[in-house]
Structure formats: C-alpha cells, structure tokens
Amino acid sequence: MIKSKTVSRRTLLKGAAGFAAGSGLITGFPAVHSAEPKVLRYLGTAVNQADEISKKLFEDTGIKLEYISATTDDVTKRVVTQPNSFDVLDTEYFSLKKLVPSGNILSLDAKKIKEFDNITPVFTKGELPSGKKIGDQGTAPKKVMFLEAEGSTTFAKEVTQWVTLIPTVYNADTLGIRPDLIKRPIESWKELLNPEFKGKASILNIPSIGIMDAAMVMEASGVIKYGDKGNMTKEEIDKTIATLIEAKKAGQFRAFWKDFNESVNLMASGETVIQSMWSPAVTAVRSKGIPCTFQPLKEGYRSWASGFCVSKGVSGAKLDYAYEFVNWFLSGFAGGYLNRQGYYSAVLGTAKANMTADEWGYWMEGKAAAGDIKAPDGTVLEKAGAKRDGGSYDDRMGSVACWNAVMDENDYMVRKWNEFIAA
Amino acid sequence: MALAFTIFFVIPLVFVIIVSFWDYNEYQMIPAFVFRGYVESFEGCYTRLPELCTILATYLKTVKLCFIVWLITLLIGFTVAYFLAFHVKSKTWQIALSLLCTIPFWTSNVIRMIAWIPLLGRNGLVNSALIDMGLVTSPIEWLLYSEFSIVLALVHLFTFFMIVPIFNSMMRIDKRLIEAAYDAGATGWQTLWNVIIPLCKPGIVIGSIFVITIVMGDFITIGVMGGQQVAAAGKIIEVRLNALQFPAAAANAVILLGITFLIITMLNKLVDVRKEL
Lengths: 423, 277
Hints:
The structure holds two protein chains of two kinds.
Chain A: H1 9-21, E1 39-44, H2 51-61, E2 64-69, H3 72-81, E3 88-92, H4 96-99, E4 108-109, H5 121-124, H6 141-144, E5 162-163, E6 166-173, E7 175-177, H7 179-182, E8 201-204, H8 207-220, H9 234-249, E9 253-257, H10 260-268, E10 274-276, H11 279-286, E11 293-295, E12 301-310, H12 316-329, H13 333-339, E13 344-345, H14 348-352, H15 357-365, E14 373-374, E15 380-382, H16 393-398, E16 400-403, H17 410-422
Chain B: H1 2-19, E1 23-24, E2 29-30, H2 36-41, H3 54-87, H4 91-101, H5 109-114, H6 116-120, H7 125-132, H8 147-172, H9 175-183, H10 188-217, H11 220-225, H12 233-242, H13 246-270, H14 273-276
Antiparallel strand pairs in B: 1-2
Helix pairs in contact in B: 3-8, 3-10, 8-10, 9-10, 10-13, 12-13
C-alpha cells in the first residue's frame, strides 16, 4: 500500500476503507449535473449555522444548505482526512496552516467575489478602515489569506488574486468577569492569576487558543516578554507552561472549559468569577439575569476570524453556486445577522444597510442604545441606555494584540499543554 | 465470527500499531519506522527523576482512579446483587428491581454528568443544605471538580456493569449448597466467604473487566467532573488526535492498550473465566 514517499491521511483512509470493504476504489470527485437541485454541504462549527440564514439564502438564490456541524478540531480533522465529504467549509484562519499544505482546499478567485474590495482591511492589510495598524502576532489573517498562485500551497506575503479563505465573521475576545462578585475594577489580563481569585478562575482547554490567553496573562504580569506570542520558542513555551502549572498547583483554577456551554455554566453558577470567555457566552450569562462583563483590558484583545473555504472536490456548476453563496453571504443579510449577535461582519457597508441606525450605533459605534437591543431571534439582550462592553468597533478591533495561532512549535506546545493538564 | 473479529478488531488494531511507528508533520502522516510517537510520549521520564513525567503521572492517576472506582463498584455491586439474588424471593420483584437499577441509563451520559453540577457546586444543593444546617460556614470546594466528584460520577455510572454479571453468577448457584453449608453449621459470614464468593468469581471478574476497561479509557466523565483539571490516559490521546498528530495518538493508544491488557491478564490469572463459565 505504501508506494509514494508520503501518503496523505486521506489516501491512507481510502486505502483502508477499500481494503476493509473488500471492494476496489472509492472514487473521489462526485459527478455534478446541472439539473440537480442546488445543494451545498456546509461543514463548520455551529456558530454561523443559523436556520434564518439558510432560509433567507434559499429564498434569494435557491441554494439549499446542508449543515454539517463539528467542533473546531473535528472540522480540521475532517478536511484533512475526508475532503470530499463537504463542499463549503467554514473555518478559522489559524487552521489554514494545517489545511492549505494538505492540498485539500481550492484556491478562490478574488475577481469572482463581488464585494472583495469592500472587505475590511483588518483582513487584507491588518489595519482598521481608518488606517490604524492593529496587532498581528499569531496567525493574523493577512499572513495566510493569499496564495502565490492558483493551486499553490505557499502563502503569499502580499495581496494576490488567489484567496484561501473569504472572511465572514470575526471578533475580539477578552476575559469575562462577574462584576457583582469581584466588586472592583479589572484592568489587566494579569488578574487571571491574581491569588485574590484563587479557586475562582478558569482558562479554556483548547491548546491553540488557551496558550494565547495564557501568553496575554504572562506578558501582562511581566513574567515573560515574548518575541511573538503567536509563535513562541521552546523556551518561551516551557516558561509559560511552568507558570501555569505553578498556578494550577496553588489551586488558582476552579476548572478548565472546552465547550461554550461549560463556560456559561461556570460563570452563571458562580463557580468562577474571572475566565477566558467568548462574546456570545457573556451574552448568554447576561440573558439569565446574571451580571457578566466582557471586560476590555489595557493589554488589548485576542482576536479570531473565520470564513469560507471551498473543497478541492468542487468543480463545474457546483463551484459557480459556491461562489454565488459566498457572494450572497457578503451581501448584507448575514452580515447584519452576525453583527446583531455581537460578532463583526467582513463587509461592513452591506451589513449596515441591514441594521437599524440604533442597532448600528449600539453594536458598532459604542453609543448608548436608544431602544431595547434585541438578538436576531427577538429576545431582549440589553435595555435602552446600555452601552456595549469595550465600546465601538474601532476601539475593540483597534486594540487587538494577537490572533489565535498555530505555532511552528505546535507539536511541542501540545505536549507541554498535556503536561499542564496532568500536573 | 472469526471473520467479523478479523475485520472489525484485528485489522484496525494492526493499522493502529503500524501507524504508531510512523512519522508526521502538521497535516500529514509520513510512512516510516520511527519511535518518535513513543519517545516523545515518555519525554522527560528519565531526565526529570525523581519528579514524575507527564505520562507516568497521568497513568498513575488513571490507575489510582480505576482502583478506587473498581473497589467501590465491587462492594456496592456485590451487595446489591446479593440482595437481589437471595433476599428477593419472587421472580417478578427481582425483574422489577433489576430494571430499577437501569434507571440511571435512561438519560444520556452527558446529562447525567451535568446534573451533578447544581447538586455539588459551590452554590449547589448539598452546600446550601450544609450551610443552612450550620454544619459548615463556607461552601465545601472539593465536592465538585475534584477526584471525589470523578469517583462519585464513575461509580454512579458503572456500578450496574458490576451488578449484572455478579447477579447472573449468583442465580446459577445451587441453593442446596447454601442449605448444606447452613446444615453443616456455617455462620452467615462463613457461607458468604467460603461458598458464595468463590462461586461468584467469574461474575466478579467479568464485572471487573467491564469497569476497569471503561474507566481506563474514559476521559469525558473525568474531564467534565474533574473540571478538565485531572489528566486521564484517554485525554492524552484525544489532545494528540485533535492536533492531527495521529501517529503520536496511536502510540499512546498502544501504550494504554498494553497496560489495560496487563491488568486483565492478571485478573485472568486469578480466575480462569473460560473454565468457570
């Protein structure tokens, strides 16, 4: 079975499956006939997979989405091992360092994306629309967004016509706190390891994201000064993990969380009062009537961004409506929907056209809400007069310090992370 | 049978063992014969002595949890099975009470674990009750996200696997043997120790194999109940898998398999299950 020097996992699995089934080959590319209904298999985490979006898409374009949802890690695994099991992929930029070299992602033509020139420069150039540069430590989108040529597996350093991933949604993450239980202002990431919160702190147990939160804490408390938080050296990893282990042994952490709902439960039940958190989780705690703040901190935010890739198994008519789908997604309805959940949309102009002036003011400009702010499903998120934690888009995205990352020393980091969990 | 065994067990296992010797990078496996997966798993085991390295500390913890859970499930399982087999006279009641034991399995594993949180948490029912009764002044922290809560959840989940085989063994015991022991003047304890327990050995061993293999490989219960803070052998494998480091995960799986196999072999040395059945 082992003929070539390197065998991708996919080839191996195909071989194994064929062997086990006793049949011959499992052929790859599915034949696409234009007469078939327009169906796209959409693989991603559940974040963007809303019914409202697929319904509206079907109304507007006749494209039917089949959602396949999995965790961030499982999405990556699936792309590498079963690239023909999906058409459109919703994934984060940091995964691209694994996905693009595997050769399973189709290069997308920027010229076929109508709103491409209106995509926020946060992605293409690493700066705000106002021109302000933002932090680019870690796997910042501009580093992995473009390819040198069609079909290439090398990332281009500048803007090119060939795109790996068309951005749709992104946000700036920080620590969530329970202001009613802490009762004093929190201003720095270093508070996560403050003994004052012994047994009441938490960090997320997804190595590539948790290590970035840990790095923000280390740098804030002056333990380590990193060359690049998003690409640590072995020594930096050793020191970061050693400090985390010390804190863990001293009983600083109540628990680690891995799943959105776990983080909500920890915070809502008061098991933790300060922890790594995601924006919609803070909203979920607040919607139970429990005070929770997505606290802006002076060292800045850890940011993430995701968008659409297309499987290399997609071609012909199917590829045409994959482009149609991406174009529709950037045309405003979905953008407004995401903005109203507290995320940011990649094309701001079209999203603005799909939001009320009050919604735009609250979510994007940091203004006090004139009326009640509602989630897309109609539940009231904030009463009139409330302001968004962290303020405007420019304030929040302008203070991004680093991005979720896959490091060069990723393998070593994962082993050390296991050591931290075992300690 | 042999065919199914080969296709669904032997061949996948052979693949896992082969892959565990492969090399890998960020996105693919490279066929080779290297010990990287194994060497990296035991990283620091010699250089960091007397401190324990990650893998030894993890396995020590897993084996310890496994032993405690095994002991408790055995005691509870044996007692419940004994009660069902010898104290409940009518068949109907035996069936009804056995079904009662399955109630925990009517909900999903995840829900059963999550349900412990409002009960054991810092502001949970147990702590509120203890504080209201004036027994403690501040909430007891170790009720949740500790080894205590892990053992509690595992015992709750797996005692049933101990009850069934032991109950089955007990039902096969010829009642005349017990009467004979009684007639020969044995006390209740002597009968239990010299007649019932030896005859229940196959049930005990089968139950033990169930519990030990499940607990050794479990990482979801340990993760949720331990607040992800307690390492488990299965957790190491999951983390490596999620990082797409399949050969390293395979190597860890082979190590786990080896250790579990060792424990089961030792149990089999004590009782020859095949002969006893």
